[in-house]
Amino acid sequence: MLKVGLTGGIACGKTNVLKEFDRLGVCGVDADQVSRDIMQPGGSAYGPVVELFGQKILSADNSIDRGKIGQIVFANPKKRLRLEAIVHPLILKEQERILAALEDELGSRLTRIAMVDAALMVETGSYQRYDLIVVVYCNPEIQLGRLMTRDHLSEEEAQSRLDSQMDPFEKVRYGDFVIDNSGRFSDTKLQIQDTFHELVSRL
Length: 203
Prior knowledge:
Elements: E1 2-8, H1 14-24, E2 27-30, H2 31-38, H3 46-53, H4 66-73, H5 77-106, E3 113-117, H6 121-124, E4 132-137, H7 140-151, H8 155-163, H9 168-172, E5 177-180, H10 185-201
Parallel strand pairs: 1-3, 1-4, 2-3, 4-5
Helix pairs in contact: 1-10, 2-5, 7-8
């Protein structure tokens, strides 16, 4: 099985890119969904995260409000690092469990490719766990606009979140393949198809 990492900056469109790869036959794993799962009540990260931030991050049903955490950590880099120190090892552990299960499940399928979408795999060094890396990129001005629209943020709030991440031009250097998602998604799809065929050729 070919293990591929998919990464890129916030609001660059990784989720849509992963969905398209999945449509082509790649088995996608969304690290953000894994993060949500482990922070659910009873999940491995729930207790440590509530202990770090206190009851104020809980919703009425005692679930963790990720929006409240976001407001805290993007304004407090120390808290963000402490959160990452708790959550990232647990996410990686769960990803390894999922990938091991996929190894058996995919068997002799033609497209024995598992793709893990994780925004911070370069920053955490976990990109080294994968055979190949695909980086999704878009023009910084477009990225800013998409983030403001998606998360209902002011320009200042959105720029602060972008500034907290690795420079997108630096991240591109880590990619075996780079997909530019600045324009129409129909153009992005063509890049995804080309990349998919290249990945299949590596099996």
